[in-house]
Amino acid sequence: MVVGVATLREPDPVLAAALALAARTGAALHVVHALQVERYLLARYRETDYGSCDPVRTCAGELQARLEQQVCGLTRHGRVFCEAVRGDPDRVLASAAERVDADLVVVGSTRRGPLARTLLGTTAQHVLHRSVCPVLIVYPPLRAPPARVLLTTDLSELSEVVHDAGVELVDALWGGAAPGLRSLLVAPRDHAPPPSAHGGHAEDAPAPSLRRFLRERRPRPVPVEPR
User: Fold this and answer.
1) pTM to 2 decimals?
2) E strands within 39-114?
3) Which of 27, 112, 174, 188 lies at a 20 to 30 A Cα distance from 88?
4) Which residues make Cβ contacts (< 8 Å) with residue 157, sequence separation at least 6?
């Protein structure tokens, strides 16, 4: 599992959520901070005499030490690895996930302002586009356990894989105390059949297909609710 930590000035709530996931699932956690070297050095150059040393390496070392300190203050989980890497956050996280063959990338929903959001999107959106594995976007606070988890499907083969992975993750995290699961199938109105002669509604037409889709999934003590 890979988690991106955006700030080192204060405890990152995304890190706490990722550490909890790793502890529950027994996964190794790679904590990554994307290093914006130029910005960091600009803030420090007046007060630091780097001499003949490599300022980039020094900068990365200082930030990695902060990252490790933050992690140590939150957990004693032994399989946590920290690194500060130079580059844009989305590229750094996608590269780290590919390098360690991650099963999951965890990022926050932090936005950088209206203009950046409009023109470039969020870091999370860029990670979604680049990642080779599933991405969990954390919107703090993360309740544990949540009251309900919403799954979605379009009944395709790809959707089967995604749907099953979502159920497995929920069961791995909360076991017998797992929240209620609801599976949502959205039927576009322009593709739905007209009302039947018996008074049925077009919105009800996909219901048998969704129920059949759920019957074919792995059985659970509490079944997934179709909608």
Assistant:
1) 0.67
2) 80-86, 105-108
3) 27
4) none
The residues, ordered by sequence, that sit 6+ positions from 44 with a Cβ below 8 Å of its Cβ are 59
What gap in Å lies between CA 125 and CA 193, rounded to an integer?
Answer: 35
In Å, what is the CA distance from 198 to each residue of 30, 193, 194, 210? 58, 14, 11, 21
Helix (H) or strand (E) holding 180: strand 180-185
Instruction: Tell me the C-alpha distance between 140 and 17, whole Å.
Output: 9
Question: What are the residues facing 82 on neighbouring strands?
Answer: 31
**CA dist., res. 129 & res. 168, Å (int):** 23
Per residue in 127-181, pLDDT tens? 888 888 889 888 766 566 788 899 999 999 999 999 999 998 888 878 777 788 9
Contact status, residue 212 vs residue 185, Cβ threshold 8 Å: no
The Cα 177–Cα 165 span in angstroms is 18
pLDDT in tens, 59-116: 777 788 888 888 877 776 668 888 888 888 888 999 999 999 999 999 987 655 554 4
**Amino acid sitting at position 73:** G
171: Cβ contacts below 8 Å, ≥ 6 apart: 178, 220
Structure tokens at 58: 């020094």
Q: What pLDDT is stored for residue 142 in this prediction?
A: 58
The strand pairing partners of 187, in sequence order, are none
| DSSP summary character for residue 81 | E
Tokens of 15: 């890190």
My answer on whether omega of the bond before 141 falls inside 30° of 0, hence cis, is: yes
